[in-house]
Amino acid sequence: MSADNNKSADEEKAEPRENDKCMDDAYVRTHKSPKGMSKLGAQVTSAVSNIPALVIVLLCVLLFVFFIIIIVLAVQINQGQYSATTDRCLTAECLNIASQVMTSLNQSRPACDDFYAYSCGGFVSQHPLGKRTRIALAEVFEKDMFHIVRNAIDLVPSDEWETSRSKVKRFYQACMEDGSVTKGARSMFELMLRKAGGWSIMRASSWSLQSWDRDFTLQTLIVDYGVTPFFRLSVTPDVHGDPTRNAIRIDPAGFAFPSYEYYMDSAPKHYKELIEAYKEFIDKVAEQMRDVHPSHQTSDIADYVVSYERRLLERLDVSRNGTAKFERRTVYNLTHTLPVIKWQRLLEAYFPGTPISMEMPVYLTHPHYFDSLVPIISTTDTHTLNHYVIWRMVMKYAPHLNQPIRSLYYKFMQKVQGAEDINLPEEDWWEQCVRHTSHYLGHAVGALYVNQFQEKEPAIEKAKEIAENVRKASRRTVGDVEWIQNKWQAKEKITNVDIKIGYPDSIRDPRYLEQYYKHFIVKLGSHLANVFEGEKYLRTKEAERLSEAATGSIDELWTTYPQNAVAQYIYERNSLFVPLALLQKPIFSLSQLKSLQYGSLGSLIATQIFKAFDKEGLDMGPTPQFTDNSTRTAYMEKLKCLAGNYPAATATGEQIDGSRTSGEAFADIAGVKSALMAFKDAEDSSEALPALDLSPEQLFFIGYAQSMCESIRDDRIINANATSTSAPNRLRVLLTVQQLPEFSNAFGCSYDSPVQTAKKCNVW
């Protein structure tokens, strides 16, 4: 018998039973305490028995205080400017939404002075950057996505093998295993280098000056490894021929920085610092990989690479060589004007399922760049060419190599992004692993994400309704503008925008995904091997599209994944994609008031629609827009006005290059105006939120601004200024509301307020 069973009867009586704790006072009085209980013990027992009562009293006090606060707020509301409605939404959902809106606001800043600070001051203060260089809603949603996908991966049974989700699990697990990332990465990379012809600084890669074949190396890098020296191959609709068929597209590629301005002798100090950081990165990685004694040809690799990239970008520089074009040529034209590349052999290797004829159409972006490649490549010595093309391979795979090289890569990227401490990577390694997995197995990861998303079908249907209402309003916006002569063509382009919201139905079918990823081999034990396999697989899927109709496969129908929280307008297709990840607060929810739905999601969709009329979208497609002289001249004048109207971008007064971003501003203004018009058509005049003295129109503009809230470092803005066609969100919001009289009317802005005194460009 155990010791517990040997308790004496007195001990057993002295220990309170669970039921005794619930007895009332009468029961206690009729059942006296054992004689052995001390006075102190009785006091303790009494105190403990009173704890529930104390908790109840405390809760009552807190509820009373909360009730007083609500009354005070209600009084303030009734005394406010907006008292047109007495019916305020008081549901739990509305209380939650009101709280979210108020949390992001900074009501100490007048809306008519700085609407962005008024709308987003709370968001910025609640999202300190720390080791990051930017936090906007896209980053917040992405962080949530990382956690959702990681949890979904953990739930996939380990004994599954051939399903798409099991491949997701193995890819992620291989990335997370320390040994998988580091063990054998060097030897595997050397093997791949040998297959590509080798690198002169690595004896193990079997480099030979006499036998190195430039054309063979280029083809191996592009076809087998997904590397893009000089250019990138892809597939696009034959927009200037038969839009129902696909054609080959070739874009300039192969540079660390996308603009010649970084490399110029007269470049600003911060760009020169980035170039020096780039050289240091190249030199340190080369030292990590070198296994031969440095010589004249192998010691100054950074100088070779940077000088060569500068030569290439000098030819690409749009400011020197005219505006970018999207030019239709043929394979025959390529082989005769650019004979330094064995085009037919390369294209046959890249697109093995499609016969490559000399008459096949090929689209070049920046054709002047490709016309300059012949003198550059043909006059470059073998060592420099070898350094340049192999460095592009090293740069691509650096995030997947051993830890010292990964560390150097992320330090360099942090420097480029303007990080405060370059030694702290923006993301933890597990987040990087989710990102890599999503990149190579996007549809399968999307299926895991979609399965975890709540109320997705009703949300998608409501979002589609908003999109159609916004489309109708966008046509009216064009119709109301006097400076556009041929309004019919513009309206037709808006009508024909193919809007897709949510996700493709096929990813919900496990059998479809199993077939889609059938030939993608994923193994445990080597992350780098999986990445090489993933690159080859992505290239295979891209190549398959060339032989398909332009509206055929899932990759044609959906050019993004549901887990990516970024809307996309595809110029060549006149298509707009709104992924499922965007259909969450504060961008959208079913419980939001219409003012917020249209202010955030409606404005986002309408802005994307009007990208059809920015500088890139005007001439894209079978029917160019604004072709008559008067309309095109007026258009360019309005862009010029917008370009010079941005506020300062940083605390030190740095200005952005408005000529690069004015097309975006043109679309922003039209988009918000159209969304407001659509909201008024659908408006419930009595809608209002509790504790917020705001009219529906004011809530609309706040919804728009809060969908654009971001924290961003000044150095990131400065570093991107030379190439970015997108302004910081603060500038986008301020310029948009300055150009919309509807905003000033909604907030009653005085004639001398900053929003009223700003120059008006009368765009829409």
UniProtKB/TrEMBL annotation:
| Keywords (A to Z) from UniProt | Hydrolase, Membrane, Metal-binding, Metalloprotease, Protease, Transmembrane, Transmembrane helix, Zinc
Provide the Peptidase M13 C-terminal domain boundaries: 567-763
Q: Where is this region: Disordered?
A: 1-25
InterPro entries in alphabetical order: MetalloPept_cat_dom_sf, Peptidase_M13, Peptidase_M13_C, Peptidase_M13_dom_2, Peptidase_M13_N
Kindly list the residue ranges recorded as spanning the membrane: 53-75
Superkingdom of this entry's organism?
A: Eukaryota
Family, per the entry? Belongs to the peptidase M13 family.
What is the protein's name according to its record? Answer: Endothelin converting enzyme
